Amino acid sequence: MVTVNQNYLKLPGSYLFSNIAKKVSAYKEANPEFKDSVISLGIGDVTQPLAPAIIDALHKSVDEMAHAETFHGYAPDLGYEFLRSAIAKNDYQSRGCDISADEIFVSDGAKSDSGNIQEIFGLDNKVAVCDPVYPVYVDTNVMAGRTGLYNKERENFDGVIYMPCKEDNGFLPEIPADEVPDLIYLCFPNNPTGGAITKAALQEWVDYANKNGCVIIYDAAYEAYISEEDVPHSIYECEGARTCAIELRSFSKNAGFTGVRLGFTVVPKELVRDGAELHSLWARRHGTKFNGAPYIVQRAGEAVYSPEGKAQLKEQIAYYMRNAKTILEGLSAAGFSVSGGKNAPYIWLKTPDQMTSWEFFDYLLEKAHIVGTPGSGFGAHGEGYFRLTAFGSYENTLEAIERIKNL
Ligand code: MLT
Predict the structure, then answer these.
(1) Which residues sit in the known binding site?
(2) Mean pLDDT across the chain, nearest whole number?
(3) 263 within ligand 1 shell (Cβ under 6 A)
(4) Is residue 1 part of a domain?
(5) Does the beta carbon of 111 lie inside 6 Å of ligand 1?
(6) Residues 205 and 346 grouped into a single domain
(7) Residue 212 and residue 252: Cα distance in Å, rounded?
(8) What phi and psi values does residue 173 have, to the nearest 5 degrees?
(9) What is the pTM of this model?
(10) Is the CB of residue 43 below 6 angstroms from any atom belonging to ligand 1?
(11) Residue 348's domain spans which residues?
(12) pLDDT per residue over 110-151, tens digit each?
């Protein structure tokens, strides 16, 4: 008789953003008169078109696919050399990080990598996550069987170390006091709170991980939004990170590839645990389960690092960060308690009048036709908070803030 992976049955409800999409569709169906006025500042999906340098690279590589001499079939499973070299040079070596092209694994996006990376670790590893947290880290460890059951009262999973990120600790995780984790997921600049970590504070995590044999899975998907000097763009800016950290990066947020799909993972060769090089394990996993990101998409990724691409994307980031400023200042003037939005495209706000996160979600949707993301969807300590994204159009962002002010 076929049995199913019982771990899946531990997961309550559906994936956060699928759940929100369903709710919004139901609302639009029930209220067709407001269908066109709904503004989404919910999921962190970009709205600006791909930059011209990227479009040119796509056109050119699509044309190459039309001729036998320049046609490309399966991509190398770890990524084309031209892209891996551009990443190593521009994202790492230019910042003084000792990362080489062959430590970079190109993929179809950071969501897949952040979900898949846990596969190379034993099931008995203890996982630590921030609370609130990007749900993929927890859900994929639940699916793998690395956690206990969902505890309805605590609204989290047994067997996971949750590191509360609250107002009184500046929404930053603290090193667990009672128990030493094996795998530590950190995301900076942070999704969902929009908070950032200084290099000195990140160095403490690296030192802790090296001292205790932990591995940090560092999600740097939002690094392009960093505006402050002492905030690191990569964990490899910290001394000793090569022996304790894996870094995940995305082309979605810095270059608008949410619908194109491209990302990469860095696994330094010095990272050894349990007698095995994690680089070799990830290469084995990648080679077996992934046939490489498409040639045309990797050429588009290469264009991100061209002089034109860099200039155009700088403008795109500035466009979204103007939205972040508009939200931050607008809500602050309206009396909301807000944070984030300075080094990240997310604004984290306290719900007014003691509303729960989902009550505020319904209230905003019904009264202002605005979609955001309930903080409790990211974890128990997100309750009473709400996330807005800066990825909308400027016009919609202005309109949304006006509507919220007028509530
Ligand atoms: C989010 O809204 O948290 C992100 O868009 C999700 C993702 O990048 O997968």
Answers:
(1) 15, 44, 74, 110-111, 134, 191, 222, 250-252, 261, 291, 387
(2) 97
(3) no
(4) no
(5) yes
(6) no
(7) 33
(8) -70, 150
(9) 0.97
(10) yes
(11) 6-49+310-405
(12) 999 999 999 999 999 999 999 999 999 999 999 999 999 999
